[in-house]
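Worked example 3 (structure in, sequence out).
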């Protein structure tokens, strides 16, 4: 797409946008004047689909109508409710339906995966993670090392970014080459929360497997705006949340991928009754027999109300078509980048990669001569974005509900605040 710096261009893009109708499917926070805020915060919490209320209300009505019999007699029976989510979720992460399960929350799932996939020995016990990983991932990894009586100072290897704040695959390859006999697990956030850099998952997976190292990814900031193709890449496991670009609501359930090659192995795991063979689950007095899918990692019966909210959003994704979502995402983020570069501000630094294939929806912006007061002024002007220490404003136009005019107006507000007077 060839961009132009004008409101007319943005409005023409919106007129021709095949996904434009979905904007009206979401609730927007309002300014004091009653206008929609410019909501560019998809990487922290996506907007609520208007259909979410109906999806949850259906389950509340069935609960009141059927009581316990809702597990079998509800319009959407609760017993297999999680299965309603598997197919659309698998499409978004590029997996087989049997490889995906919605359960728990992201950090809980990460721990459950490491119970199975972090199996250290006295020789091979080290974990590789990016140096500026999301803090919860780092805490989880450190605690797993300590649980196995290893010192994180000795057993945690940090893949560090270069001076431009980008991670280079040559540095990753060197780490693996230098420590291959000591590393048992690599855990990478496929889209870095701070810079928005999207890593080459195929390269990382191939390098790890060449050295018999398990590879897992945290997709929290990529799921819903990139296509990770988890099955074809051969990734061992992955985890993600659903409340960002998947619009499932604050604190909602997370997702988990376990490649089918691990479904019938004797991996250690923490177990619960919902991961037991469905045909004998309610016999109660059976030894644990895992379901031969990712469902085996479930512990408890699913929280239906949270899953109803996820289903509302996934249904919109299926209507929109995920390929269309990704295309618009690249066009929107490219337009945002173009307008920011047009400011010709020597103190403006976009630390997210320029290559659209190396980023998702997010651009991370630094103003080298500004502090958080600039962000606060944007907020006061009706822009919802993210501030991340130190000195980064994360702007994330979500393709299902953001418009090209949103992006244009954001940059105009930024110009007025920064250069006024």
């Amino acid at each position: 797409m060839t961009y132009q710096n004008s409101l007319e261009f943005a409005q023409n893009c919106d007129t021709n946008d095949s996904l434009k109708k979905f904007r009206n499917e979401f609730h927007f926070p309002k300014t004091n004047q009653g206008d929609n805020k410019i909501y560019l915060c998809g990487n922290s919490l996506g907007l609520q689909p208007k259909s979410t209320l109906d999806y949850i209300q259906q389950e509340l009505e069935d609960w009141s109508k059927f009581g316990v019999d809702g597990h079998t007699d509800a319009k959407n029976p609760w017993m297999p409710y999680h299965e309603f989510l598997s197919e659309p979720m698998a499409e978004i992460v590029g997996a087989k339906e049997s490889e995906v399960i919605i359960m728990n929350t992201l950090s809980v799932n990460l721990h459950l995966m490491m119970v199975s996939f972090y199996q250290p020995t006295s020789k091979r016990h080290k974990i590789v993670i990016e140096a500026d990983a999301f803090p919860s991932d780092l805490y989880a990894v450190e605690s797993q090392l300590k649980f196995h009586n290893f010192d994180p100072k000795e057993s945690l290897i940090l893949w560090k970014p270069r001076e431009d704040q980008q991670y280079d695959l040559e540095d990753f390859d060197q780490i693996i080459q230098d420590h291959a006999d000591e590393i048992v697990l690599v855990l990478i956030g496929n889209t870095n929360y701070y810079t928005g850099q999207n890593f080459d998952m195929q390269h990382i997976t191939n390098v790890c497997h060449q050295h018999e190292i398990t590879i897992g990814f945290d997709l929290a900031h990529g799921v819903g705006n990139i296509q990770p193709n988890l099955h074809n890449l051969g990734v061992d496991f992955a985890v993600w949340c659903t409340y960002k670009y998947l619009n499932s609501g604050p604190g909602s359930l997370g997702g988990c991928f376990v490649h089918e090659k691990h479904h019938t192995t004797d991996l250690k795991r923490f177990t619960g009754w919902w991961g037991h063979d469905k045909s004998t689950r309610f016999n109660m007095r059976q030894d644990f027999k895992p379901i031969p899918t990712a469902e085996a990692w479930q512990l408890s019966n699913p929280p239906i109300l949270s899953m109803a909210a996820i289903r509302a959003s996934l249904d919109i994704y299926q209507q929109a078509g995920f390929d269309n979502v990704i295309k618009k995402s690249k066009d929107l983020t490219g337009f945002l980048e173009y307008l920011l570069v047009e400011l010709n501000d020597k103190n403006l630094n976009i630390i997210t990669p320029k290559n659209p294939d190396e980023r998702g929806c997010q651009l991370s912006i630094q103003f080298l001569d500004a502090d958080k007061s600039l962000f606060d002024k944007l907020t006061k002007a009706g822009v919802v974005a993210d501030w991340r220490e130190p000195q980064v404003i994360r702007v994330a136009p979500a393709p299902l509900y953001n418009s090209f005019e949103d992006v244009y107006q954001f940059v105009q507000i930024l110009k007025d605040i920064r250069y006024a007077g």
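Notes: The chain has a mean pLDDT of 96. The radius of gyration is 22 Å.
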